[in-house]
Design a protein that fits this description.
Elements: H1 2-12, H2 19-26, H3 28-37, H4 41-53, H5 61-73, H6 85-94, H7 104-124, H8 126-140
Helix pairs in contact: 1-8, 3-4, 4-5, 4-7
Length: 141
């Protein structure tokens, strides 16, 4: 399949992580599956929820902010993200008067965690290596 081969070519040339580009290149499902295998899928889920939240109409911000906070940021959240206490407290204050940017600080922490920790491991993972092998096999055809 031509689009799949293009996807793999793009994947193999991905060296640096750019916020929007790397998610598009490797695909949310592939990276998400890798994170799930590492029991850290909450990171990509939170990041994507924040991206969606930024597009929310102002009259729905409060409801959506509460939902994201309870799901990912609250200290008792089922999918609690790994952020420091100060960022957690700062985010809790910001959602009391929510704006489209109230999760930006926490989102940046999680993005950096994925960029510096999860993504380099992904590049060494069997998932990624299998994709590269498939790319090589497709390029020989």
């Amino acid at each position: 399949d031509r689009s799949k081969a293009q996807f793999y070519r793009s994947l193999s040339s991905c060296v640096t992580v750019d916020r929007c580009v790397w998610l598009q290149i490797i695909g949310q499902d592939v990276f998400g599956s890798f994170l799930k295998s590492e029991f850290s899928e909450e990171n990509i889920e939170f990041w994507l929820a924040c991206e969606d939240y930024k597009k929310t109409e102002s009259d729905l911000l409060h409801c959506k902010a509460e939902k994201i906070y309870k799901a990912f940021v609250h200290s008792d959240a089922a999918k609690q993200i790994n952020i420091d206490f100060r960022t957690r407290e700062s985010t809790a204050k910001k959602i009391k008067a929510p704006t489209p940017t109230c999760f930006d600080e926490a989102q940046k922490v999680i993005y950096t965690l994925m960029e510096k920790d999860s993504y380099p491991r992904f590049l060494k993972s069997s998932v990624y290596l299998n994709l590269l092998n498939e790319l090589q096999a497709n390029s020989l055809k």
